Amino acid sequence: MDSRTSVLAEAADSLALAVIASSNAPVLLLDDELRIIAASDSFCDTYGLDPRGMEGRPLAELGDGEWGAAQLASLLRATAAGSAEIDSYEIQLVRPGQVSRCLVLNARRLDYFDADNVRLVLSAVDVTDARVGEKLKDDLLREKAILLQELQHRVANSLQIIASVLMQGAKKVRSEQARSHLRDARNRVMSIATMQRQLAASRLGDVVLRDYFADLCASIGASMISDHDQLALTVSVDDSVTKADVSVSLGLIVTELVINALKHAFPRHRKGKILVDYRSDGTAWTLTVRDTGVGMPRESDSKPGLGTGIVEALARQLEATVEVAAAKPGTMVSIGHK
Q1: Are residues 18 and 109 in the same domain?
Q2: The model's pTM
């Protein structure tokens, strides 16, 4: 090594020693044999080591030998050779009679202008308390998710009981109009119960609409279609995924439109089909419910019902527009968000 290189190496060594001495972080300066050249006061204080006699000691002999893990030594030697770097490497520091600590290690080789004069800087940050806090947070979130799913299941079960009571009431009343209202109420309750089951099975805030609409329409069809050869209810949905609150509003719209089609589009046992279709492109989406029934009534013969008001209110909530058109045959209702 020429004199200029020697001067540069000595200057770099002095600078490294000064940095270690002034550091508030737990840091070691090592040579290529993993012997300690310098240790920061923070390192000694954090890990209960006597700063006296640190210089020249092998890393593996610190404390009761807890720093002598074979894998750590192998990684440090590879870093000294320039073939690796230790970046956020976690180890468990196990010391007799003390609680195990979780450390995050980082090590870098310093360029001393001379391959024979290798220096390593090793930092060891104790993240035990942070990991405990993260685990506690994860446990609380997991417990919250379990409790929420249990609540959703109980709500769905309660809704099914209410639907059963409404159905029993519909069988007992004499008025056909009252019976019709009770059946409508029962079908709406059942659709909401289906939503609850689907949401409970989905990840929180993440609902796959294809499965969601398929289950919902299957539930409606099972309760309202007596002959599936006569009336077919099908679902066609792309791979859209949406938030739970949006899916609830969409599900209620589908419920109202399908129930309305089943009640009015196929009088006198008319055969036909109902198609529920959903497509999205970015934030834009279109939900369409189309039937092959008798078509829209004349304006003079029709007046908005409860279902129409519900659909319009839900569409406004979703910042969407409602369009009703003749499908020839039947009627097509489209709800779109641009």
Answers
A1: yes
A2: 0.51
